[in-house]
Design brief:
Blueprint (H helix, E strand, L loop, with lengths): L2 H22 L9 H27 L4 H30 L3 H13 L3 H26 L7 H14 L4 H22 L8
């Protein structure tokens, strides 16, 4: 797969998740059902593309210790968020309504460590790793100085209101498109020695 695709696909899939999430809530309740499942699948697909973006940003940052730690933290965060979304999908399939989902979520989050690892601390690594990588690229002048601010805006908007996820995804897309260009300009030709 062309690694540049990930820089466009990840934000677009987050945008799809955000729009589907809003549509799912129009009846006053989110999940279970087709919208719940399809939105979560879109976000899981975005997470897969984020792994590629993190690895490419690490490469652009020079593969040093800081970029390796940032990318590793981000990927650990991706695993946590992916686990959370997988749980959401399974709970959606097992439940007849939102009340039934709440019962399952309460049981799952009552398991020691799950709440921190899957819902709170673990996912935070995804956001921190992503921001750290982009800041490193800005400091190295590999991206424009405004790029980390767009990424930060993308990360903060859902904390203000989750219905702002689509707007955050657009900010992320605007910050990632130049990164896709950087990847294209710095990619090693396929026949070049490693």
């Amino acid at each position: 797969m062309n690694p540049r695709i990930a820089f466009v696909a990840a934000p677009l899939l987050v945008l799809a998740y955000g729009v589907i999430r809003i549509l799912d809530g129009l009846d006053g309740s989110r999940g279970p059902g087709l919208a719940w499942t399809s939105g979560h699948l879109a976000f899981i697909a975005a997470l897969a593309f984020f792994v590629s973006t993190f690895l490419q940003m690490r490469r652009l940052a020079g593969r040093d210790t800081l970029s390796t730690v940032s990318a590793s933290a981000g990927i650990i965060g991706i695993l946590a968020v992916g686990t959370q979304f997988a749980i959401d999908i399974v709970v959606g399939f097992l439940s007849a309504d939102r009340a039934g989902m709440s019962v399952y979520f309460d049981r799952i989050q009552a398991v020691p460590g799950v709440s921190f690892l899957v819902y709170d601390g673990g996912p935070l690594l995804f956001f921190l790793g992503q921001l750290a990588l982009v800041v490193q690229l800005a400091v190295a002048r590999r991206v424009k100085i405004w790029t980390p601010f767009l990424v930060l805006l993308d990360l903060l908007l859902p904390f203000v209101d989750k219905d702002l996820i689509p707007l955050g995804a657009v900010c992320l897309l605007l910050s990632f498109v130049p990164l896709a260009g950087q990847v294209a300009r710095t990619a090693r030709p396929a026949h070049a020695p490693a």
